[in-house]
Amino acid sequence: MAHAHAHAAEEHYEMGLPVSNAKLAMWLFLATEIMFFMGLIASYIALRFGRADWPTPDDVGLNVSIGALNTVVLIVSSVTVVLALSATARGDRNQQALYLAITAALGLTFMVIKAFEYHAKYEHGLVQIVNGWPVLQPTHEIAGGGLWPSLYFTLTGFHGLHVIGGVVMLVMLLIQSMSGRLGPDKYERVELIGLYWHFVDVVWIFLFPMLYMIG
Question: Per residue in 46-63, is it b (16+ CB within 10 Å) or e — as a string?
Fold first, then answer.
């Protein structure tokens, strides 16, 4: 009889996944995002090197120093989100809230700098305002015509939307932290948002040299 019960238990045993369903879903989501940005970057490379005429960063008013500053901002934010994760594991709510707030603030800093850059592109004549909407048509002749502005605003615009989405999620975590609802048992929640934030940072690390440094 004991042998029959043991056999029945063995029949109902199922091997679980090595990761949680939430983490698996996040990895699958990030995989689709990676393919999305790879398609955009591949399109830029194909169009860029398929033309003999292409503007240099100086031609279109791209400031390498500003781009480098934004890169540093995102790299530092990756460090602070790791520190927030470490504080979550320790159950240190004060440190957790502090580093979540710093990470969100750095994300907003990135977007503010990018907004100034966008305004500079308008001042540089790369964008027209028609009926209150920006039109990606240069007001003066540049190499490649309107192709470079279209690619630049598409790549940086989609990346910026991802940064804004990450900031929103970080603020949500911050609210939960300040209300005491983000203890060590919610470690995975912070980890998943951290994974997304690292992805956003890595994408910019590819975009920065491609847009700002390759003439």
Answer: eebeeeeebbeeeebebe
pTM of the model: 0.86
pLDDT per position as a tens digit, 100-152: 999 999 999 999 999 999 888 777 666 666 666 656 665 556 666 677 888 88
149, 167, 161: which is closest to 37 by C-alpha? 161
Residue 195 main-chain phi, psi, to 5 deg: -60, -45
Structural domain containing residue 48: 20-212
Q: What CATH number does residue 113 fall under? A: 1.20.120.80
> Virtual CA dihedral for 211, 56, 52, 160, nearest 10 degrees?
20
Picking from 83, 96, 91, 87, the residue whose alpha carbon sits closest to that of residue 184 is: 91
Residue 30: its H or E element: helix 21-49
